[in-house]
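Troubleshooting log. The previous structure file for this entry was overwritten by mistake, so regenerating from the original sequence record. Sequence copied from the archived sheet and checked twice against the printout by T.R.
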Amino acid sequence: MDHLARAGEDMKILVVGGTRFFGIPMVNALIDAGHDVTVATRGNNELSFKGGVKHIIMDRTDADSVKRAVEGSSFDVVIDKIAYSSNDVKALLPNIKCDKYIQMLTCSVYAEDKPCINEKEFDAAAHPLVWTDRTQDYGESKRQTERAAYEYMDADKSVFVRYPVVMGENDYTGRLRFYVEHVMNGIPMYVDDRDFAISFINEKEAGEFLAFLADKAVSGPINGCSRGTIKISELIAYIEKKTGKAAVYSNDGDAAPYNGLQNDMSCDTGKAKSLGYEFSELGDWIYELIDHEIAKVG
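Regenerated output below.
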C-alpha cells in the first residue's frame, strides 16, 4: 500500500531507539495520534511512555540480532532514530517491509557551516557509498547512513530529518552543562571562537516533529531547527550574569563542546513550514533551559 494514501489514518509504526531524550516526546506524540507503536531497543532503559507500546529487543550494532528481531515483519512507517552507519542501515532494511522510512540525521552532513543551509546542499543519492561500521568521523558516518537507505528504499518513500544540536532537560550528553559547570566552578575552558552564532532545536520539538512527519506526504531531506541563533559568547555571558561568576578561558583548558564552528550556522526550515510545521523561537526556551542547568549544578 502506498504510504501517502495512509495520511491521517492510524498506522503501524516501528521506532528504532526512542527510550530516552527526544525519543520520549516522539513516541508519546505517536501514541497520542492513535498509532500502533512498536519500539525496538537493547532493553537497557525502562519504557516510560504515556501509553502502551509493543517492545522488541535487539542490538542495533549486531546484524544477526537485528535480523532475528525483525525479519519478515511489516510496518506502515519505520522511524529509525539510531542509525549511525551504512552497515546499520544494511542490517535493518533488507529484513523488514515498510511503506515509509524516516531516518533521524544531523546537520553535520553539510560540508560547511553557514547561515540558512538548504536541504539541497547535500545530495545523499549522489554521494559515493561506502559500506562501513560506525566511525569517529560523525559527519561522514551520517552521510553514509543516509546514502545507504537509497539502496533499499525508493526515494519517494524515504525521509531524512536533519537536526542541529538538540538541547533539553533530558540531554544525557552534558554539552550545555559543560559551560554552566565550568563558569560556576571557575574551571578553565578552551573555546575556539566565541563569536560564531549557532542554531539549536529543543528536545520536545525534535521528537514531535519526527512524529508529525509519520503521516505527511513528504520525502527526501528535511531540516528542523528553532528560529534564530545564539553566539557562544552570548550563551556564556548569560551564565555569567545569572551566576555572578566569570568564565575562565585558557588554550590549555577543557575543550568546549561546540568548538569547531567554521561560520555562523543555521538551517532553512521552509520545507517543514510548507507542511504546516512552525518551529519555536530559540529565545523562547533556551534561557529557561540554561536556568534549569544552573539550578541543577548549584
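Residues 14 and 78 are 5 Å apart (CA to CA). Archived copy saved in two places this time.
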